[in-house]
Design brief:
Number of helices of chain A: 12
Number of strands of chain B: 0
Helix content of chain B: over 70%
CATH class of the largest domain in chain A: Alpha Beta
CATH superfamily of the largest domain in chain A: P-loop containing nucleotide triphosphate hydrolases
Number of helices of chain B: 11
Low-confidence stretches of chain B: none
Number of domains of chain B: 1
Strand order of the largest sheet of chain A: 6-7-8-3-9-10
Number of domains of chain A: 2
Largest interface: A-B, 35 and 27 residues
Oligomer: heterodimer
Shape of chain B: globular
Strand content of chain B: under 5%
Strand content of chain A: 25-35%
Shape of chain A: elongated
Distance between the termini of chain B: 28 Å
Structural class of chain A: alpha/beta
Radius of gyration of chain A: 24 Å
Distance between the termini of chain A: 41 Å
Order of helices and strands of chain A: EEEHEEHEHHHEHEHEEHEHEEHEHH
Radius of gyration of chain B: 20 Å
Mean pLDDT of chain B: 91
Helix content of chain A: 25-40%
Largest sheet of chain B: none
Largest sheet of chain A: 6 strands, mixed
Low-confidence stretches of chain A: 311-340
Mean pLDDT of chain A: 80
Structural class of chain B: mainly alpha
Order of helices and strands of chain B: HHHHHHHHHHH
Number of strands of chain A: 14
Chain lengths: 340, 252
């Protein structure tokens, strides 16, 4: 549905996007992930025909943007980073204008406008001037505009920015409903959003694609080794060395997850090897209480940080705090240090 | 065509939803009223003193009124055109237009038509005064229509220059100020012509003045030379606007 090949975009001497290629199948929801300034918006602007690429080609809905931009645009809905609203128009007037320029047939115009207003839950503000809307409503009117002509391809630049948690949920729900008949590309730096809504992820950093995969594969692929978390009570002084002696264990370290008096341990083993039985047996044989034993998973956040901060060692700047508490980030960084 | 009309409609709508249309038309109506009143009274005096000379409504009333109005359009039209692209760029709505299934030309023609619509409603104000003359006298219709044709073409030149300048910037004030300056230059550019050291420069300066070409129209002379000048001026202005919008895309 969308085919991007060797796309490069330079602004003067500055390269915003450098030789990126990816494709999106019909009905997929592709998450575009990257720190601010990674080139997400630039890529989206190229895909919507807002600006031509310096090099490379983009084919959207079967039409090469360089050759048939109008046909491609007819089949694309686009929500830019700032919703493009005319502040002096009412929501209904605005959507009516959008319907006209997007070529919605005259006979359908009214019903289409009403349908998308209901779908994006802005119908109660239909007569309100766009300039007087709250951020959340602006965002959703922008989304309504993108859906208006029922496009095959939807390109959404941070569709949930500025929404409250309830609206974020509703919007994600709406995007999920679109899967199947629409092909969606959405950019975000809120990671749970990607794992919740997207079928595939493209992680982009400094204008280059660093990974393309499903959220699940990404997390497992990047986990070089298996990590178990165990919690013991009472802790034997030699627990760490005893467990480290088990066949397959590569490293044991104290977990930084605080758990009251009982201390947790993180146990790494060779990738693809399940050592849970051996671990449990060793612990029980010593007469220690086994309070918890679970595999630790690398969250998408860790993957993201790992991929986008490989060259510089400091965490990528400009990443907004994720919507959910970034608790798992700590132990994972521990893991990474250990691997080195 | 539908797309052009949709844009034109939106442009006109936003002129009339904001105070701009009312300010521009209202101020113009007042100033035009003063011109019309003063010149009418002058004309009355002259015709009562009579003497041997016959007086002509078209030559001595209508023409001077419109020649004076040209200067007012010069002041007013930058206010009309300064926002057209600048505001879209500032607010980001340009992204909506450039990603909609529209060609650049359709957008530009739409904006041009919208601004011309507002200009036409300014001319409509003058039509009321002109209409009243028919109750008290017998002005010739053809020269009057010719004058309006000239006004529309001249206004088109101003609007196309205004659109071009507006497409350079996202700052309305900058667009307005530069447009106004350029209009003034286009008005006075033929003033130094008599002192030009080379004949070709003299010809060029004389030919370049937008306002000068209107003179024949106001006299009731329809000369294709002037029509060609105006229409090619508008075409070049709109073409350059299209180039400017396209360049902006490449620069991003």
């Amino acid at each position: 549905m969308i085919e991007v090949q060797h796309l490069t975009k330079r602004y003067g001497p500055f390269t915003a996007v450098s030789d990126i290629s990816f494709s999106v199948e019909r009905g997929e929801i592709l998450g575009f992930l990257g720190p601010n300034g990674a080139g997400k918006t630039t890529t989206m602007r190229v895909l919507t025909g807002y600006m031509p690429p310096t090099e490379g080609t983009a084919v959207v809905a079967g039409f090469n943007l360089a050759e048939k931009p109008i046909e491609a645009k007819r089949r694309t809905g686009y929500l830019p980073e700032t919703p493009p609203l005319y502040t002096d128009m009412s929501v209904r007037e605005y959507l009516d204008f959008c319907a006209r320029i997007k070529g919605v047939p005259r006979a359908d115009r009214k019903t289409r406008v009403t349908t998308v207003m209901e779908r994006t839950r802005v119908a109660d503000m239909a007569e309100r001037q766009c300039g007087k809307l709250s951020k959340g409503y602006r965002q959703r009117v922008g989304l309504a505009q993108a859906l208006l002509h029922n496009p095959e391809v939807l390109i959404l630049d941070e569709p949930t920015a500025g929404l409250d948690p309830k609206q974020i949920n509703e919007t994600r729900q709406l995007i999920k409903e679109l899967r199947g008949d629409h092909t969606v590309i959405l950019s975000t730096h809120i990671l749970p959003e990607v794992s919740q809504t997207c079928t595939r992820v493209v992680i982009i950093n400094k204008g280059k694609v660093v990974a393309v995969d499903t959220p699940d594969n990404l997390t497992s692929r990047l986990r070089g080794s298996e990590t178990m978390y165990v919690q013991l009570d009472p802790m034997g002084a030699d627990a760490a060395s005893v467990l480290a002696a088990i066949d397959g264990v590569t490293r044991v370290s104290a977990s930084s997850e605080p758990r009251g008096s009982a201390l947790g341990l993180e146990i790494e083993s060779d990738a693809g090897r399940d050592i849970r039985r051996e671990l449990a047996a060793a612990i029980v044989n010593r007469g220690w209480g086994l309070l918890e034993l679970r595999p630790m998973r690398m969250s998408l956040e860790d993957v993201f940080l790992k991929l986008t901060t490989q060259e510089s060692d400091q965490p990528a700047e400009g990443i907004e705090p994720p919507a959910e508490p970034p608790a798992p980030a700590e132990p994972a960084s521990d893991v990474e240090v250990a691997r080195e | 065509m539908n797309n052009v009309l949709a844009i034109a409609r939106k442009e006109l709508r936003s002129y009339f939803a904001s105070p701009i249309a009312y300010i521009v038309i209202g101020l113009f109506a007042v100033i035009f009223g003063i011109f019309f009143g003063v010149i009418l009274l002058n004309f009355n005096q002259a015709s009562q003193q009579g003497g041997g000379q016959a007086v002509n409504v078209n030559e001595q009333l209508i023409r001077p009124v419109f020649l004076n109005s040209v200067v007012v359009f010069l002041f007013m039209l930058p206010i009309v055109t300064m926002r057209s692209y600048a505001e879209e760029k500032r607010s980001g709505t340009i992204e909506l237009l450039l990603t909609a299934p529209l060609t650049d030309l359709q957008i530009i023609l739409g904006k041009f038509t919208g601004a011309m619509g507002l200009y036409a409603s300014m001319l409509l104000v003058t039509a009321l005064s002109m209409g009243s003359l028919f109750f008290f006298g017998t002005p010739e219709v053809k020269p009057l229509l010719n004058t309006y044709l000239g006004l529309l073409l001249m206004g088109g030149c101003f609007v196309s220059v205004g659109l071009l300048i507006s497409s350079f910037t996202s700052n309305q004030i900058v667009a307005g100020a530069v447009t106004f300056g350029v209009f003034l230059i286009l008005w006075v550019i033929n003033w130094p012509a008599p002192f030009a050291p080379w004949p070709w420069l003299q010809t060029f300066l004389n030919y370049a003045s937008i306002v000068d070409h209107f003179d024949d129209f106001s006299r009731g002379v329809l000369d294709t030379k002037h029509v060609v000048y105006y229409i090619s001026f508008i075409a070049v202005g709109l073409f350059l606007t299209a180039r400017s919008v396209d360049t902006e895309r490449w620069r991003g």
